[in-house]
Design goal:
About 45% of the residues lie in helices and about 30% in strands. It is α+β, with helices and mostly antiparallel strands. It has a five-stranded antiparallel β-sheet.
């Protein structure tokens, strides 16, 4: 993969997440690329960050929420959060594949939709947000 794939990834994330990021008052994107492992694009605000990852070795994309707590940062995938919040019933409702641009876009669209579903839980009461993160097995 490499640089061309990273450029496509960054462009797709900007296109698919810009409106939500603006609505939620998030700053970004903070885009970084490693030729050996992955590309990341992050949007942050109010102690909450959404991290978009493109992992070249496994050729997949993931969106993680990162919550700043008193003891540090905890992270969970948006699919795990959506299940823990009860807004989706089971795993497998979204794709992670990024073997081509069409798959990447479909995967990012689904995961952005999950971010939209869980954001109200994460942006509200901090204790409730931390509890949801733990329920989603955040690390």
């Amino acid at each position: 993969m490499g640089v061309p794939a990273a450029k496509v990834f960054f462009a797709e994330v900007r296109t698919l997440f810009a409106e939500a990021a603006e609505r939620w008052g998030l700053e970004g994107p903070d885009e970084r690329r490693s030729d050996l492992l992955l590309a990341t694009s992050c949007y942050s605000g109010g102690g909450l960050t959404y991290e978009f990852y493109f992992e070249w070795f496994e050729v997949h994309v993931k969106v993680r929420a990162v919550l700043e707590t008193e003891t540090g940062k905890i992270k969970a995938d948006v699919e795990q959060l959506a299940i823990a919040a009860g807004v989706v019933e089971k795993r497998g409702g979204v794709s992670f594949s990024a073997r081509n641009q069409k798959q990447m876009k479909k995967s990012l669209e689904g995961q952005v939709r999950y971010a939209e579903l869980v954001h109200p839980f994460l942006a509200g009461d901090r204790e409730a947000a931390e509890e949801l993160m733990r329920k989603a097995r955040a690390r």
